[in-house]
Every structure is written in C-alpha cells, then in structure tokens.
Amino acid sequence: MKPALNIKSVNKKFDGTVALDDFSLEIPQNSITGIIGPNGAGKTTLFNVITGFLPLDSGKIIYNGKNLSRMPSYKIARAGIARTFQQLRLITRMTVLDNILLSFQNQAGEYLKNTFLFPGRVKKQERKNREKANELLAFMGIEEKAGDLVEDLSYGQQKMISLACCLASGADLLLLDEPVAGINPSMIEKILMVIKKLPEAGKTFVIIEHNIEAVMRVCDRVIFMDEGKKIAEGDPESVRHDPAVIEAYLE
Amino acid sequence: MEYLLHILILIGIYVILAVSLNLIVGYSGLLSIAHASFYGVGAYVAALLALKLHSPFLANIICAIILSGLLGAIVGIPSLRIRDDYFAIATFAFQVITFSVMNNWVSFTGGPMGLPGIPRPAIFGWKITTHYDFLIVILVLCIIILWISHKIVTSPFGRVLKAVREDEIFAQAMGKNVASYKVLIFVIGAGMASVAGVMYAYYISFIDPTSFTIMESILIISIVIIGGAGNIWGSVLGAAVLVILPEALRFLGMPSSIAANMRQIIYGALLVIFMLFRPQGFIGEYTFRK
Amino acid sequence: MLAQVLLNGLIAGSTYALIGISFGLIYMPTRFFHFAHGVVYAAGAYGTLAAISWLNLPLSIAVLVGVGTSTVIGLTIECTVYRALRRRSASSLVFLLTSLGLYIVLQNSISLFFGDYIQSIRIGAVEEGIDILGARITPAQILIVSMSLALTVAVTILLKRTKMGRAIRAVANDAELADISGINRDKVFFRTFAIGSALAGVAGILVAFDSDFCPTMGINALMMGVVAVIIGGVGSIHGIALGALLIGMAQQFGVWKIGSQWQNAIAFVILLIFLLFRPQGFLGKKVKKVTV
C-alpha cells in the first residue's frame, strides 16, 4: 500500500540538543500508528515539524505526493493533516459547537466578499455545517454539550472535543498528542472506541501516548523513539518485547 | 439645541472610532495605540482634497478609506512577527511618526497651524451646512458602519477573528491563515476610522495635529474598554458615556482652564478602575487575559 | 561642526540612558510597560521645583525632596494598583493599559497643581559652557553625561554583585522558579520600584537642570527610554546605555542633516526596524514568541 505520510531523514536541533536525528518513518494509509518513548525522545517535536509549527533543519516530509517541508502550518492543515496538542488547545471561551464550526474547511463565510455579496450561500453552508457538527457530536456521544462553553467541560471532555475538531476539519491524517493521558478510564474507553472506528472511514492516525495499555489496544503498529531516533518498529507485541525497548525503559 | 446636536455629532464620530477599534482590539486581540492616526489620515486627506482639488465629498471619503486602509495594512503587518505588548509599542511608534508628519511637514499639512477653511460638503447637490444636516449624515454613516461591523463579527470570518484572539496556534492548526485575518481587520478598522476623520474635518472645518495625538488614541481605547471589548454595542455605549460625562463638568461650573485636565483625569481614572475591577467593561466579553 | 554633533549626540544619549536604565531595571522582573514611569520621572523635577519655590529650601535639599517624591509615587503605584493586578494574574496587556491610565491621571494632576506652562530650575547660565575640541558643553550637561556613566556601572554592579540583584535576575529569568526557591516576589518588586523610581527622579532632575520643562516632559523621555531598552536588549544595562547612545547620535545627525523637528520620528523609525528585524535588541536574549 502507498504510504500516506513519508518522513525522510528529518533533523531538528534546539540550541545544540538533538531532538530529531536523521529520523525516517512511513505511515501507511488507514492505519493507527502509536509512538512511544521516554520524555524528551522527540515525539512532540516530530508532530511540530510535520505540522509546520517548527521548521526542520534538513530532510523531507511528503504527504500524498506533496512536500510539506517549507509549507506554513495553515496550508499543511488544509492539505489534510489535523493535530491535537499535548497542552490542549481549544477556544475555551467559545461554545463546543462554535469550536467545531470553526474547524470546518473551505467555509464561504470566511471570506468577507461572500458574507456581503452572497449572504445566502454563506447562510446555507453555515446551516449545513451546523447539522454536520451536531451529527459529529452525536457520533462521539457528547451532543448534549454542544451549547456549553469549552472551559466549563472536564479535561476528558475537552480532549474529546479536540478530537472532534480534527474530524470536523475533514483531515485524513490525524496526529493525536496524548489523547487519553490524565483522564478517567470510562472517558479513555469512549475515546479509544471513536478512534478504532475511524480507519474504515478512511482516516489515518498517529498517536503519541504514554498509556501503553491504550496503545496496545488500538494501534496496528508501534514505533519506539528515543533521543530523536527510531529504536524499534513493528506490531505492538513485538515492540513491547524488543530488548532495546526493555533496556531503554529499565534505564 | 445647537449644543445638543453638537454633542450627538461628537458621539457619532466616537462611535465610528470606537467600533472600528473594537474590531481590532476587542475581536482580534491586537492592542493598537495608533487609532488616532487613522482618524487623522481621514481628516487630512479630506481637508487637503477639498482645499486643493475641490473634489466632491463622496470621492474624498473613498480616497480617505483607501489610503487609511493601506496604512492599516502597514501597521498590521508587524503583528505577524511581534505580539502583545511589543506590538502595542510598535503601534505607538507608528502613532508618533504619523503625528510627526502632520506636525512637521509644514508645506503640505500646514504643520501646527493646521488647515483652516475646509468648505462645506455636498452630496449630489445637497449642501450639508447646518448641525442637523451633519447629524443626519453622521447617523447614516454610523448605521452603515455598525451594520458592516455586525455582519463581520457574526460571520464565520468573525469566528476566526475570535479564535485568532484566543489562540492563534489552534486557529492555524485548523487551517486558518491567521496572518491574512490580522492584516485584513486592520485594513477594515483603519478604513472605518478614516470616515470619522473625514466627518470631523468637514464638520469643524478646521483641523490641526493636536486632535490626532497619542492621547486621542488612548481615549478611543478607553471608550472600547469601558464600553466592553469584543462587543459592538459596548462601543456605542462607551462613546456616549465618555462624550457626555466630561460635558457634565461644564454644568457643574468648572472653569475651562481646569476642565480640560479634569476630562483627561476622568478618562484615565475610568481606564484604571475598569482594568482593575471590570476588565470586560460594561457589556464586553474580552478581558485581555490569555 | 561634527564635533558638536557628536557631543550633542552623547548628551542626548546620556539623558535617554538615565531614564532608560531606570525603566529597564523595573521592566526586567515585571515584564510590562510601566508608562506611569514617565510621571515618576517628571515628579523628580516638579518635586524639586516645589521645594525650591514653595518651601524655599536650598538646592541640595530640594533635590532630595524631588528624588523622594518620585520614589513615593513609584512605590505607591506598585503597592496599590500593580500589586492588585498581580493578585488577579493580569496579562501584560492589562498592565500596559492600566499604566497608560495612571499616566494620564498623574500627568494631568501635575498640570492642575503647577499649570501647563514651562518651568525652569536650570543651573548655571548657558554661556558658562566649556569648549572641548571646538564643541560646547554646559556644566549641567557634564553632570548628565557623567551621571549616566556612573549609573550604568552602578546598576550593573547592583545586578551582578549584590544579593538583591541576583533576586531581581532570578525573578526576571523565571518568576515561578524564583517563587519555588523562596524568593519573595513582592519584596523584589518593591525594591526594584524603589530604586527604579528614585533613579527616574534623578534623571528628571538632571534633565531639568539643563533645560526647561512642562508636565508632559515624562512621556517623551520615557518613550526614548523604552526605545533604548528595546533596541539595547531587555536585561542588559550596557545594552540600554548603547541603545540610548545610538538613538541620541542618530537624532543629532538627523538634526544636523534634515532638521530638528524629525527627532521623534527618527527614534521611532529605529524602534520599528528593531522590533521587526531584531526584537531582542542587540544584546538581549530572545523575546517571547508563540510557543507550541
């Protein structure tokens, strides 16, 4: 199968410390890839260079035949890559519904020309997006929260909303930075259920997560990273029992 | 009666200034201390065109909007590289530079002597001369600008503006071209502010640089904050309160030598009090917290 | 002519360095633009003026009154308004707006008490100047230049060698870490405002010795100080002094070549260039950026 994302020998340094060291990785389409590794292994940095929030020092990142390496973040998002952040980012003083509505792409009403010259078109699309947003919230089982301010929700619910925003953006590749860390088991269950259903709908996931159990349950493939390098790669069981991984965790 | 109309006209001018600044500060979170310079650019463009080319009122308004909008883009662009208070300082610098040009380019702007004798305007043959006429024109312009602003902030475009204000990283991650929103809202706000300047120049028929100082910029910010940042109607309320309040000093029989300073003290004190105890203003939603 | 331009640049730069260092010292741990510092500066000159003309005190004691006035005003602002804002963990924008409001209130209060017209506490007549290589400098100006040099050295030593200086730098580098390591932040701010305000008073008085002044003297001087701090680099006293010298020289060359009315514009164009292309200044560390 053709890879959705192809990362070729990417390097990234911060003031002398190496965050990504000649890192290469292929993400197959409709897969769920887990990335594990100790703190400071370069996992979040990897997400940041893929999504253009950090410039890379060298290397190439190809997504669906497009080279992302010099693209601004918003264009990468438009190309179909959505992400969540370790330190959750949402518009906390807007409602859940507004956050979802914000996340849709190609909105006519985002251009003032359309707001003033074609108000009918803008209204029609806005109505459709509203429906889609409500369907999405229902799919995730949080439709009753639509009118709440995000800041009034629990941490787990906020993580759910940020996943919903990624889905609303219509992206095919979703990068989730610790989607289940720090939330209660029943919420973890809900989020994992949602993630598991999506590859059949054409979505591809890369997940950074410290919760090994969760990774074992949803991922097809696991990458173990340390010091900016890929140490092991394979199906969850084999990576778990890889001597290099065991050694690194024992350290 | 004239006096009452005069107050209403002033309120109208400050409504335009405050609403346009609110789009930039209250909705997009870009603190600009340069709004009086766009106000001034509008006034000077209208005055110079009317005096030197005798061009008609509507043409002058359009020229003022275009030129001021261009300057707005220039002020907005630094917001892509620097943020928060550093950006505010950059707008401060811009304000000082435009004032300096108005004050020192004597051959063009008249310098500190200003530009007297701005002729009465006319729209399609209707001569605008009395206070009534001016009030009607300003009222119409206010309504147009309020309508446009309302449309902007309630549209998906406005939703992105708020997202940029609250968390621009998230907005980018969701595919929004943050840079273009910031620059565009500056262009719009600056263009609107110039309309207030055009009306001021025609109404008073004399302009000089002292009307467009940094203190004027701070006054407009005070109106936005006291009325409520992030709420258009807050700016209408704020403008009414801050224009009427100092006028009350007159009725208290305060000598005019003191009144000028007392007015400023009132603005300043209200700004401090609101920032301390009610940063959202009367009816706003943005409190400058991150 | 060139010698006079260079000397005038040095004098102007020194006056900016005086206010710049006092502002920069406060900015370092607080990290917000304390505009009301402009009034604290003016209060030095007006306090001295009041002591001379209302109380008939001798100059030396009047100067102390002036410095005391500045210190008291600076500390009052810190202990009442700023401390309250800090309790509400207000953003730097809220601090900036509040301090603009304070500036307006206080500057207009000076106008009410002393009138808007020009005042003078000049020392020595202008013709008393001394010639250096064909350039002229007055005793008051010599005082300004030497004081700014002395303060650059003194404040650098204060920051590098004293316990208090280390505390200020600790708060400047990482306020939370400083909290954890047991530094009392309010105490550090109190002392910084005390020293910074006193220095601003000294700066205001020295400038008033050299030229006439009016209630708005503070905002312009403060902005030159702010420009010096930004282009010199926050946290570096040498940087501030160099930044001040750079604007002073640039302005005086501007006066020579294009006319004195463009001095402000020149300083702020330099500021814009730095903000856009080197916002950390030439000696400073990186400024805050949006971090992921």
List the topology elements.
The complex is a heterotrimer of chains A (251), B (290) and C (292).
Chain A: E1 3-14, E2 17-28, E3 32-36, H1 43-50, E4 58-63, E5 66-67, H2 73-78, E6 81-83, H3 96-103, H4 112-117, H5 119-139, H6 155-168, E7 173-177, H7 185-197, E8 204-208, H8 212-218, E9 221-226, E10 229-234, H9 236-240, H10 243-250
Helix pairs in contact in A: 3-6, 5-6
Chain B: H1 2-27, H2 35-53, H3 57-76, H4 84-104, H5 106-109, E1 122-123, E2 126-127, H6 131-154, H7 156-166, H8 168-173, H9 178-204, H10 214-227, H11 232-251, H12 256-277
Antiparallel strand pairs in B: 1-2
Helix pairs in contact in B: 1-6, 1-9, 1-10, 1-11, 2-3, 2-4, 2-9, 3-9, 6-7, 6-9, 7-9, 10-11, 10-12, 11-12
Chain C: H1 2-30, H2 37-53, H3 59-87, H4 92-114, E1 130-132, E2 135-137, H5 139-161, H6 163-173, H7 175-180, H8 185-210, H9 217-232, H10 237-257, H11 263-277
Antiparallel strand pairs in C: 1-2
Helix pairs in contact in C: 1-5, 1-8, 1-9, 1-10, 2-3, 2-4, 2-8, 2-9, 3-4, 3-8, 5-6, 5-8, 6-8, 9-10, 9-11, 10-11
* Average pLDDT number of chain A: 93
String of helices and strands of chain B? HHHHHEEHHHHHHH
- Count of alpha/pi helices of chain A: 10
The end-to-end span of chain A amounts to 37 Å
Strand order across the biggest sheet of chain B? 1-2
- Strand line-up of the largest beta sheet of chain A: 6-7-8-3-9-10
Summing up helix and strand content along with how strands pair, one would put the structural category of chain A as alpha/beta
What fold name goes in the CATH topology slot of chain A?
A: Rossmann fold
What's the total helix number of chain B? 12
Assembly category: heterotrimer
Low-confidence stretches of chain A: none
The CATH class of chain A turns out to be: Alpha Beta
Please, how many domains of chain B?
1
Question: Can you name the CATH architecture of chain A?
Answer: 3-Layer(aba) Sandwich
Helical amount of chain A: 25-40%
Shape descriptor of chain B: globular
* Count of the separate structural domains of chain A: 1
Give an account of the 3D structure.
- The complex is a heterotrimer of chains A (251), B (290) and C (292).
- Chain A is built from 10 helices and 10 strands.
- Chain A has helices spanning 43-50, 73-78, 96-103, 112-117, 119-139, 155-168, 185-197, 212-218, 236-240, 243-250, and strands spanning 3-14, 17-28, 32-36, 58-63, 66-67, 81-83, 173-177, 204-208, 221-226, 229-234.
- Chain B has one domain (2-212).
- Chain B starts with a helix and ends in a 13-residue tail after the last helix.
- Chain C has a single domain (2-277), classed as ABC transporter involved in vitamin B12 uptake, BtuC (Orthogonal Bundle), CATH 1.10.3470.
- The mean pLDDT of chain C is 91.
- Classes of the chains: A alpha/beta (251), B mainly alpha (290), C mainly alpha (292).
- Chains in contact: A-B, B-C.
- At the B-C interface, α4, α10 and α12 of B face α3, α4, α9 and α11 of C.
